Amino acid sequence: PVFALILQLVRIAKVLGTDELFGYLHKYHIELDTRFKDLLGQQTRKRWEQFIQSENQHLVSPEALDLLDKLLRYDHQQRLTAAEAMQHPYFYPVVKEHANTNTDGTKAISSSN
């Protein structure tokens, strides 16, 4: 189980980078075992656009990348809460659609039609 946690941290660091990780550890006075430092090495933060491929390109929008960036942070103080995430522009189409739906799931009829 401990090795799995270490491996998970290494995988996260390969995406989010080690500079932010070490900054987070320093900010909150957290000491990382030297064995972890050796395993982590020096990783640069990846841009979210690097993960866009032809298979997933149709799912990507600037709002999706912005939401992802604000959720995937080491620092819990910088990371969006669930409530904040639900207010993100990425979800505006869902909120708008929900606002135009009756409680029984049927489409609401606008008086302007």
From TrEMBL:
<dbReference type="GO" id="GO:0004674">
    <property type="term" value="F:protein serine/threonine kinase activity"/>
</dbReference>
<dbReference type="InterPro" id="IPR011009">
    <property type="entry name" value="Kinase-like_dom_sf"/>
</dbReference>
<dbReference type="GO" id="GO:0005956">
    <property type="term" value="C:protein kinase CK2 complex"/>
</dbReference>
<feature type="domain" description="Protein kinase">
    <location>
        <begin position="42"/>
        <end position="91"/>
    </location>
</feature>
<dbReference type="GO" id="GO:0005524">
    <property type="term" value="F:ATP binding"/>
</dbReference>
<dbReference type="GO" id="GO:0005829">
    <property type="term" value="C:cytosol"/>
</dbReference>
<dbReference type="GO" id="GO:1905818">
    <property type="term" value="P:regulation of chromosome separation"/>
</dbReference>
<keyword id="KW-0547">Nucleotide-binding</keyword>
<keyword id="KW-0067">ATP-binding</keyword>
<feature type="signal peptide">
    <location>
        <begin position="1"/>
        <end position="17"/>
    </location>
</feature>
<dbReference type="Pfam" id="PF00069">
    <property type="entry name" value="Pkinase"/>
</dbReference>
<dbReference type="GO" id="GO:0005634">
    <property type="term" value="C:nucleus"/>
</dbReference>
<protein>
    <submittedName>
        <fullName>Casein kinase 2, alpha prime polypeptide a</fullName>
    </submittedName>
</protein>
<keyword id="KW-0732">Signal</keyword>
<dbReference type="InterPro" id="IPR045216">
    <property type="entry name" value="CK2_alpha"/>
</dbReference>
<dbReference type="InterPro" id="IPR000719">
    <property type="entry name" value="Prot_kinase_dom"/>
</dbReference>
